[in-house]
Design brief:
Layout: H1 13-22, E1 27-30, E2 33-36, H2 42-59, E3 65-68, E4 72-77, E5 80-84, E6 88-91, E7 101-102, E8 105-112, H3 117-128, E9 136-141, E10 147-151, E11 158-161, E12 167-170, E13 175-178, H4 179-182
Parallel strand pairs: 4-7, 8-9
Antiparallel strand pairs: 1-2, 1-5, 3-6, 4-5, 6-8, 9-10, 10-11, 12-13
């Protein structure tokens, strides 16, 4: 059994990254503190798989790569070093060469749960939009059909979609997907 980071201690970035490689539990890192990640539901996992499958197929052969849940996004915001684990992330920038994280994502998707919704809608939103290459931040509710999209090109104003037959556009990677496809296999 692997180790668990001591979350009550201040950690350097190097200590955090080393600890994550050895830990059975994933932790996000904000300014020297590590926070354990909650577990996921079947609905959460199904939504992630649906998104990753569609994005991977669409982006195959191009410069963009799709990452799911276990690859960190590294950013700096309000003077803090931050590492988050986005549920789905698309990165296309050749400057991204680190083996454990990406710093220049183009799209980030978070699947909402009761325990993460406020953090994703507010804290992460404000940090993520500081990433120079981020073009879209997408929130997918796992308890009902609802997708919220924030786009840099729209000055980060929210767009909300609630009908299964509606189609959303991942404009930054030129892909369209119906909400029914995102939620395929999810039972409410």
């Amino acid at each position: 059994m692997g180790a668990v980071l001591k979350t009550e201690e201040f950690l350097t970035v190097e200590e955090y990254l080393k600890g994550e490689e050895l830990s059975d539990t994933r932790h996000e890192y904000i300014g020297g503190r590590a926070y354990a990640m909650p577990g996921v539901t079947v609905a959460h996992n199904t939504i992630c798989v649906n998104l990753v499958s569609a994005l991977r197929t669409h982006l195959r052969g191009g410069p963009c790569r799709v990452f799911v849940e276990s690859v960190k996004a590294h950013l700096r915001s309000i003077g803090l070093e931050i590492f988050y684990y986005p549920d789905v992330m698309v990165a296309c920038d050749p400057r991204d060469t680190h083996n454990l994280f990406r710093e220049y994502p183009k799209v980030i998707v978070e699947v909402l749960s009761d325990s993460t919704e406020q953090t994703n809608r507010f804290e992460k939103f404000h940090h993520y939009i500081q990433i120079e290459t981020l073009e879209e931040y997408i929130l997918v509710d796992q308890t009902k059909v609802e997708v919220t999209i924030y786009r840099r090109a729209n000055n980060w104003k929210l767009e909300v979609y609630r009908a299964a037959e509606q189609e959303i556009t991942f404009a930054s990677v030129d892909m369209r997907m119906r909400l029914a496809e995102i939620y395929e296999g999810v039972t409410f």
